[in-house]
Specification:
The complex is a heterodimer of chains A (287) and B (295). By secondary structure, chain A is mainly alpha-helical. Chain A contains eleven helices and two strands. In chain A, strand 1 and strand 2 form a beta hairpin. In chain A, helix 1 runs antiparallel to helix 8. Chain B has 295 residues and is mainly alpha-helical. Chain B has one domain. Chain B is 76% helix and 0% strand. In chain B, helix 1 crosses helix 11 and helix 2 packs across helix 9. The chains are: A mainly alpha (287), B mainly alpha (295). Chains A and B meet through helix 4, helix 9 and helix 11 of A and helix 4, helix 10 and helix 12 of B.
């Protein structure tokens, strides 16, 4: 029962990892570099939510605002930096993304300080479900994430721009000769990637504390989940995020709190060496 | 004042050892190592803990180099099987894992409380200026030796093979050279340099905590070699000096701009580093001392 409870706790954590990993995997699959600024865009989302929450008292509204701000920041990072580095080596994009992340973290640190802040949520009695305690807040958060996920998958699979995105991911050259305007597709991609991770930021902020370093600390598990799920596969990232979140919680009694992060590193390493295509990805040259 | 300047020189030289290693890795074999601080930490803790248990400093410094070099061996094996960007993520994870192990294994490392009272170098000399001067001189010697070694490597048949690895790995394999061995050797050599740098750091600061070995240190070094120009000894030197000028200068800035707290300054520092990383990759990828004959 104890482990079942840990697994339930891990689900919300897993959703946060899933959202961050989806953002990474979308960018990695299409722009083809691991965006190290993803975590810091998440932080931006968390702080944006934190501003709106006391004003409105609505988790949904703060979520929407956070998603909008994070999407705008991601789009700006594309327009100002990453678009101009198209065609350059991976290391240029990678180093630039580290730089973008630092700038965002610096702005957050200067604007809000380094004191940890919290969403002051009203306390509520957990639902009892056959011995499992389920926090209503967790349910709300899961619902928020679900809305975001449904939206994301709907955009990817049901709209023309989503189809074009997947076409570019599949085969950029073929997509271009078929008349897909890659500029618009790229902009849409970055908006979507930012929006997804912004929602994750609010969730993480509500579950833990909000600080300038929070997103950076999520980067390792998020990269691990993106690789575990298979680069370029949003569904894989979702699944892998859940597995990692639950695995982290369930391993805590054995390995202790601090080794949780090392666990995701170990999983990532094993996946890269043994099954580089991940859970749902296709074989792509990781070697 | 003089001993303060000397302190800056010592820290600069320590960072220079880190820059040399990273520059050699990226500039020669094209390895994107985002976890250099991990080797630095291994060196610092190895030497500090050995020295505290009575091992002579010369031996503990050697042990630091060997431990860091050996830690690079499995990383090198992994690097052979991964594309550059995946390798960057893996090394970043490696350095974080090293830090987590240091935090968690309190029986060995005293966890977040850190290791105090690490013996200084040249403790027989009077404390203060002379000991510092001797440390700086020794460091300068080590840096010069490292620079000479790297220069020899780059200009040897071995070095030409290394550069060929970066430029066209497949062609090199077709010529019957084994790029794998070279990559691992370069990685281990620069890790050993980072280990020595760590040992110097530990015995100079005399107090180490896990917080000193965060990924930010790696990116400081990246900033130095990107600004200076990747793959050149002169680039590493210019970049490192500029980096230290900036880091130390920002400390003085606080005296001139009133009302800026230490944490705000730290944020500002990260922001400037980030901005420089972005601007240099955008507008001056060769760095200041870069090779303009190539793209």
């Amino acid at each position: 029962m104890y482990f079942a409870q840990l697994a339930v706790n891990g689900l919300v954590q897993g959703l946060v990892i899933s959202l961050a990993a989806m953002s990474i995997t979308l960018v990695f699959g299409i722009v083809r570099f691991p965006n190290a600024a993803t975590g810091d865009v998440m932080t931006v989302g968390a702080f944006s939510g934190l501003i709106v929450y006391p004003l409105t008292g609505s988790l949904l509204l703060s979520g929407v605002f956070a998603v909008a701000v994070a999407a705008a920041v991601a789009l700006a990072s594309h327009l100002l930096v990453f678009r101009r580095l198209a065609g350059r080596s991976v290391v240029a994009l990678l180093v630039a993304s580290i730089g973008v992340g630092f700038v965002l973290r610096s702005i957050m640190g200067l604007a809000f300080g380094h004191q940890p802040m919290v969403f002051s949520m009203p306390l509520s009695r957990p639902y009892r479900l056959g011995g499992l305690a389920i926090n209503p807040l967790d349910l709300q958060l899961a619902l928020l994430a679900l809305v975001m996920l449904v939206l994301a998958f709907a955009i990817l699979h049901l709209t023309p721009i989503g189809r074009q995105m997947r076409a570019v991911a599949d085969n950029p050259a073929l997509a271009r000769v078929s008349g897909i305007r890659s500029g618009r597709v790229m902009a849409a991609l970055w908006v979507l990637a930012g929006a997804i991770v912004g929602a994750g930021g609010v969730m993480l902020g509500v579950k833990t504390v909000v600080g300038p370093e929070m997103g950076w600390d999520m980067l390792m598990p998020a990269f691990a989940a993106a690789i575990f799920g298979g680069i370029g596969s949003p569904a894989g990232a979702l699944l892998a995020g859940f597995i990692l979140g639950v695995a982290q919680e369930m391993s805590t009694p054995f390995v202790g709190f601090t080794y949780k992060i090392a666990l995701s590193f170990a999983i990532m390493l094993i996946v890269l060496l043994k099954r580089p295509s991940g859970l749902l990805g296709r074989i792509e040259g990781v070697r | 004042m003089l001993s303060y300047l000397l302190a800056i020189v010592i820290i600069t030289l320590i960072y220079l050892l880190l820059s040399f290693g990273l520059s050699l890795q990226y500039g020669s074999v094209g390895l994107i190592n985002f976890g250099h601080v991990g080797f630095f930490a291994i060196g610092a803790y190895t030497s500090a803990l050995l020295a505290l248990s009575g091992v002579p400093l010369l031996a503990s410094f050697c042990a630091a180099a060997i431990a860091a070099g050996l830690a690079a061996w499995p990383i090198g094996l992994i690097s052979l099987r991964l594309r550059d960007d995946y390798f960057a993520i893996v090394t970043l994870g490696f350095s974080e894992t090293v830090r987590i192990i240091i935090v968690s294994e309190k029986w060995l490392t005293n966890g977040v409380q850190g290791v105090p009272g690490i013996p200084r170098l040249f403790s027989s000399l009077p404390v203060g200026f002379e000991a510092q001067l001797a440390t700086a001189a020794l460091l300068l010697l080590v840096c010069a030796a490292a620079a000479f070694t790297i220069w020899r490597i780059i200009n040897s048949p071995f070095g030409r093979v290394i550069q060929a690895i970066r430029d066209n790995e497949d062609a090199l394999k077709a010529l019957g050279k084994d790029p794998a061995r070279f990559k691992i050797q370069v990685l281990m050599l620069s890790a050993a340099l980072a280990g020595i740098a760590g040992a110097f750091y530990a015995h100079y600061i005399t107090f180490i905590i896990p917080e000193q070995f965060v990924p930010l240190v790696t990116f400081y070094v990246w900033m130095a070699i990107i600004i200076g120009g990747v793959g050149r000894i002169s680039g590493a030197i210019v970049g490192t000096v500029l980096l230290m000028t900036f880091l130390e200068g920002s400390r003085f800035m606080r005296d001139f701009i009133p009302g800026v707290s230490e944490v705000e300054m730290a944020s500002l520092r990260i922001g400037v580093i980030g901005l420089l990383l972005v601007l240099f990759t955008l507008y001056r990828p060769q760095g200041l001392m870069g090779d303009y004959t190539k793209r």
